[in-house]
Amino acid sequence: MAAAWVRLCALVLIGVSSGAALAKDKTAIVVGGGLAGLTAAYELQAKGWQVTLLEAKSGMGGRSGLATSEWIGNSKTQPVLNQYLERFKVGTLAAPEFVRTPGYLIDGEYFSATDLVAKQPATAEALKRYEKTLDDLARSIEDPLNPAANSTLFALDQMNVSTWLDKLQLPATARQLVNQQIRTRYDEPSRLSLLYFAQQSRVYRNVSDRDLRAARLPGGSPVLAQAFVKQLKTIKTSSPVTAIVQDKDGVTVKVGAVGYQADYLVMAVPLRALAKIQMTPGLDNQHLAALKGTNYGWRDQLMLKFKNPVWESRARMSGEIFSNTGLGMLWIEPALKGGANVVINLSGDNARLLQAFGDKQMVDQVLIRLHAFYPQARGAFTGYEVRRYSTDAGMGGAYLAYGPGQISKYWRLWERPVQRIAFAGEHTDALYPGTLEGALRSGQRAAGQVQDLAAGKSFDPAKAAPVAAAAAAGAAGAVAAKDKGGFFSNLFGGGSDKAPAKAEPVKVEEAKQDKPGFFSRLFGGADKPEVKTAPIAKAEEVAPAPAAAPAPVAPAPVAKEEAVKPAATKPAPAKPAAKQAHKPAAKPAPVKKATAKSEPAKKPVVNSQAKAG
Ligand SMILES: Cc1cc2nc3c(=O)[nH]c(=O)nc-3n(C[C@H](O)[C@H](O)[C@H](O)COP(=O)(O)OP(=O)(O)OC[C@H]3O[C@@H](n4cnc5c(N)ncnc54)[C@H](O)[C@@H]3O)c2cc1C
């Protein structure tokens, strides 16, 4: 009897002590299941944190692209990406040599860089001049982490890239190709801060295209997202976060009427999506202005599928191809999805204008253009997939692309935690925004910051941008004006710069009404008359008539979700008693994925009237 009593006491003690150990576990919530959020969750979990990842959509991976076989850089250019690929044993294929430098599609004819020099020397020469001038501009930035280091550089942030390009007086074709490259990589030149463009050029200075397009990732970045998903214990999809409350003890996150609690939070959603989440206490004015005002580049993707290649095999079109015909950047997919596919990236204002059209109308217009150059296009066309990142409420754009004046106001703003929240996402990485590398780096940084916060470190409040005071007081224009014959003259090829031109609002109405010339300008290039394409009237009237009606192909899910139960409307009581006794009831209980492991636990915070969202 006495022995049994001792045993019982021992069990109670073990229970209490293991409960106490669990009570010390640090908890974190990660909001957003793109590569940034996945990285933050993975890194925190690896450090022993209990992490719950909440993703709004039914699938994971966020903005991972439509391409089934993405080009990626080598470990010299994308070290973090390559580390994770190695760690998760995700295989890559070396890129064939001919795709490692960009190609050009000029009026339907394909040119490699070498062809261009031989056959279109004036265009090749102009592109070289542009690259040299850009390189000079990039060199003027000593530290890309502090691009506005002096008032002259600060002044560049007040200008847009289009104004700068105008000064170069490039011939029409070269300008069209340059425009296309810039709008594909960032955004419309007229919407882009010249300082941001220079800073990014500084980051990639002396990085060769060969290193940036060194390998192919079969299956694309969703494969990497899935590799992270497999490592994580608690993921809850279809869980759009609607509100966050921070207090001295922790954070409470609401998904509709269901609440989760944790000690810290990583917010890994794009700015437009963050703007929709109610924060208590509210963000300060600078953050609120950044949420509203930071420019995102627009880039939508169409994959057109053909029974067989309709382009000349000689063209070997692959890698990045910049067209002067408004088709945007395009590349040929290997036949991973059957047949022969071409992915067309419509970017900048071309993409904005096409928001007025439905997917099929948009595809029809693009197909018309391809058909004009490749007459078998219609007959061989079998279907399409479209992805519009810019109008997706969870994304609100393709990626960060600072507009004029925005570096001055918002530089590295999101790298600093706000109380218990650290921010992640491509837009929070100062060196590699808009890339997988940037997203992964930001997830690592945010995970580190959460640990620092837990260790008692405090982060400085936002500082004013360097030289902001002087330049904001009008020094920008003065510097440009004074500097005749100096810095700016060299960069611009003479003369001082004009006042910053404002980006023109996109005339969606014009697109809707399809005023004469709209599509001609869009696809024929704004700078010169349309070449080779038939005149266009209304979108509907000119829709191509494929031999057999193409079956629209439903966009493939970004990534197949594995082993995660959709959020239940009722909270699932899932915690062992000992754990609950020592943890506040509302902490999220990290749960293993359904196939595996245990039932997702979600704790209601306030659930008196409403249903779970
Ligand atoms: C067309 C295109 C082509 C690209 N090409 C390349 C390329 O070739 N190379 C390269 O390196 N990079 C490329 N990128 C960039 C790269 O894909 C992104 O930088 C990266 O995927 C961004 O990851 P993220 O985690 O920051 O954001 P996201 O992937 O957008 O993740 C954010 C997640 O948050 C979720 N979310 C939003 N709101 C909420 C909410 N309220 N509650 C819960 N979840 C929410 C979203 O659903 C999403 O899953 C490309 C991007 C695009 C759009």
TrEMBL record:
<keyword id="KW-0732">Signal</keyword>
<dbReference type="GO" id="GO:0009851">
    <property type="term" value="P:auxin biosynthetic process"/>
</dbReference>
<feature type="compositionally biased region" description="Low complexity">
    <location>
        <begin position="565"/>
        <end position="579"/>
    </location>
</feature>
<dbReference type="Pfam" id="PF01593">
    <property type="entry name" value="Amino_oxidase"/>
</dbReference>
<feature type="binding site">
    <location>
        <position position="241"/>
    </location>
    <ligand>
        <name>substrate</name>
    </ligand>
</feature>
<feature type="region of interest" description="Disordered">
    <location>
        <begin position="542"/>
        <end position="613"/>
    </location>
</feature>
<keyword id="KW-0560">Oxidoreductase</keyword>
<dbReference type="InterPro" id="IPR001613">
    <property type="entry name" value="Flavin_amine_oxidase"/>
</dbReference>
<comment type="pathway">
    <text>Plant hormone metabolism; auxin biosynthesis.</text>
</comment>
<keyword id="KW-0073">Auxin biosynthesis</keyword>
<dbReference type="InterPro" id="IPR036188">
    <property type="entry name" value="FAD/NAD-bd_sf"/>
</dbReference>
<feature type="binding site">
    <location>
        <begin position="55"/>
        <end position="56"/>
    </location>
    <ligand>
        <name>FAD</name>
    </ligand>
</feature>
<comment type="similarity">
    <text>Belongs to the tryptophan 2-monooxygenase family.</text>
</comment>
<dbReference type="InterPro" id="IPR002937">
    <property type="entry name" value="Amino_oxidase"/>
</dbReference>
<dbReference type="InterPro" id="IPR050281">
    <property type="entry name" value="Flavin_monoamine_oxidase"/>
</dbReference>
<feature type="signal peptide">
    <location>
        <begin position="1"/>
        <end position="23"/>
    </location>
</feature>
<protein>
    <recommendedName>
        <fullName>Tryptophan 2-monooxygenase</fullName>
        <ecNumber>1.13.12.3</ecNumber>
    </recommendedName>
</protein>
<dbReference type="GO" id="GO:0050361">
    <property type="term" value="F:tryptophan 2-monooxygenase activity"/>
</dbReference>
<feature type="domain" description="Amine oxidase">
    <location>
        <begin position="35"/>
        <end position="450"/>
    </location>
</feature>
